[in-house]
Amino acid sequence: MKIGELAAQTGVSPKTIRYYEEINLLPEPERAPNGYRDYSEESVELLKFIRDAQASGLTLAEITSIVAHKVAGDSTCDDVLQMLGDHLKDIEAHLVTLSSMRKQLLEIFDRAESLDPADCTDTIRCQMISANTRAKRAAREAALVHNSGLQRR
Predict the structure, then answer these.
(1) Enclosing domain of residue 128
(2) 3-class SS at 27?
């Protein structure tokens, strides 16, 4: 099958297919007498696996490792489970960060609604952001003072 047919069957662009060959993730196919690439059904299955693995968060380097182990006849289940677990931990940590950023943005929006743009005279900073940052810093400092007072008791 030609590269266009392979692309249509897998949803992977011809350019990406060529790139996968270039980085040795997809074996270079046989060539037809006219020089066109001639892909097999194994290429279809491998590209579907690569697409699905990427959708689950695995990197091309990780996928290359999995494919190499599979080609060598090795079991990859433990490695894949570890990789997926690591990605899940990363996503959960990212969600915590995003949640914190969302909370801060909501606070800025709430504060911005009560501010008059005519009162913004600082030529460098925006009153919505810098006022919110100052308020947060003051709250953190107050909490530190309070906590240090509790430690002395």
Answers:
(1) 97-152
(2) coil
Domain boundary among the residues 74, 105, 133 is at: 74
Tell me: pLDDT of 47 over 70. yes
> Between vectors from CA 117 to CA 114 and to CA 123, what angle results, nearest 5°?
130
Place of tokens 């005519």: 118
Rounded-to-integer distance, Cα 2 and Cα 50, Å = 19
Q: Are residues 63 and 115 in the same domain?
A: no
Residue identified by tokens 């297919």 is 17
Q: What pLDDT sits at residue 77?
A: 92
90 lies in a domain? no
DSSP secondary structure code for residue 35 in this structure: S
Residues in the chain: 153
Q: Which of 92-106, 109-123, 130-144 has the lowest mean pLDDT?
A: 130-144
- What is the pTM assigned to this prediction? 0.66
Are 46 and 67 in contact by the 8 Å Cβ rule? The answer is yes
State whether the Cα torsion 16-23-6-70 is positive or negative: negative
Number of domain units in the chain: 2
